[in-house]
Amino acid sequence: MIQIDLSGKAILLTGAMGAIAEHMVKRLHAAGAMLVLIDLKPPSEGHAMLRAWKVPEASYVYHSLDITDSATLTCVVDDSFERFPGVDTVLGHAGGCGLHPFATTSEAEFERVFRFNFLAQVCLTRAVFAQWVRRKTAGHLIFTSSYVARVPHTQIPAYASAKAALENFARCMALEYASHGIRVNVISPGNVAAGSSLKVFEEDAAYREFVLRVTLGKRNSPESIADAFVYLCSPMGSEISGQILSADYGSGIGNRL
User: What is the pLDDT of residue 214?
Assistant: First the structure.
């Protein structure tokens, strides 16, 4: 088994208390990283979950906030860099949705889903890149997307559109900030047997049939997505930038099958 050592590395992670993030946190901690964790859950609940995951308090700092609040997010990012000036890896993982068919989704709800999954990531990027450029840090920003960014589905138009925008934004940033030594990549899961992906899988029969057909009856495990993140955080991924890593069990092949 390949052993990845992230000792001495500080990593900032948004959406840290989610079903997939649980395994990201566990694996990053096991590899020795110091974690700056951001999530909407209140501190008491976040700390209780981390104790259940056997992540000691000395290994993380927890911030409770809504990442769509750009001013608060920027303040937390700035404070995190003051405390951990060496932060060179940031994981923009927060996101998700339920079913929201276009005809029955209000304008406000459509915008809320899009803001959460895309515009909040733009704000995170702005705050983080300002720190990296000022500190001359060759940082690495990794977003979580979804295969639906490239394989359209019904009933999730705001989410799919936001993820498509996020992937193109990531490639634009990889080009624009290459001269600063900053890298940007995206991990694109398929249907993961956890979190919002599981909810949509269980509620939409047509979607469920599609997923099981194109993935040979299998879905991504959350552990496999966490492994993809740890790989990109490690020295093994040090020469990758501007890429979409599709850990999707073939879902991205889509209707071409």
Answer: 67
Q: How many CA atoms lie within 13 A of 82 on its CB side?
A: 6
154: which 2 tokens?
A: 């019904």
Residue 115 DSSP class: I
pLDDT of 84 above 70: yes
> What is the Cα–Cα distance from 123 to 45, expressed in whole angstroms?
26
DSSP string, 23-42: HHHHHHHHTT-EEEEEESS-
Residue 104 scores a pLDDT above 90: yes
Which two tokens mark 126? 């702005």
Report domain extents, the chain: 10-247
57-67: b (≥16 Cβ within 10 Å) or e: eeebbbbbeeb
On whether the CB atoms of residues 24 and 226 are closer than 8 A, the answer is yes
Q: Which CATH architecture has domain 10-247?
A: 3-Layer(aba) Sandwich (3.40)
Per-residue pLDDT band at 209 (split at 50, 70, 90): confident
How many C-beta neighbours within 10 Å does residue 2 have?
6
Contact 117, 166 (CB under 8 A): yes
Look at 142 and 252; give whichever has higher pLDDT: 142
Residue 16 pLDDT > 90, yes or no? Answer: yes
